[in-house]
Amino acid sequence: MYTDSHCHITCDELYSDLEGVLSRMKDVCRVMIVCTSEEEYLRAVPIRSSDPVRFRIAFGFYPGDADEVTEERLAFLEEALKSGNVDVLGEIGLDHHWPEPDRQTQKDLFVRQIRMANDYDLPIAIHMRDASQETLDLLRQEARTPIVFHCFSGSPETMREALKLNSLISFAGPVTFKNARHAPACVQACPADRILTETDAPYMAPVPMRGHRNEPAYVAYTTKKICELKNLPEKDLTSQIGHNFDSLFSRQS
Question: Where is the binding site for a divalent metal cation, in residues?
Fold first, then answer.
């Protein structure tokens, strides 16, 4: 049974086919529904309520949306945290690939949300693109709860620094790509007890589904590739990944 530690099944593209998506992911027993807006979060709550063992919710404001995050929206996020329906605060972080939102706006939002996670003792899921050093520095300064580096794409050297931060490293479809730059080396260097698998659906479908809309069922392909790279039996690795995922919540009541 597989683990999808990061998927956006309540985004418009997948939510419009939710019944089909859920029916095809029968072999996925642990699912993190990642919500980057209030609407996505409200869609996720009844899914989580229907099977709280299988489904978890991550909710937070993505760095690319930092210009649009008002005090009112942050108050909504805090009320969601108070409700107990949010298991992880994320995905949050820094993205310097594009010139906007400006770096200070992203940083301010990132720090604000890390501190909220500290207040509510929630793990955080990190988006880190072209901003590795600054992201790691801020996490060293501010984070007090477990960290998941979502869809990790950095170098093995960056991964080693990330692993020092009470973190798990989550790998997605790019580990299956022929042109993957760092992913295979990172998988091989990452201890099995620090690995998570994800789809980031509907984005970045793994081979052999590359070019198609991604969905949680396809996490099997990524998992099989990780098993190949680490020369581990699939049964053993899927069990370990499930344990790694569950460990995020061991501190929560």
Answer: 6, 8, 91, 127, 150, 200
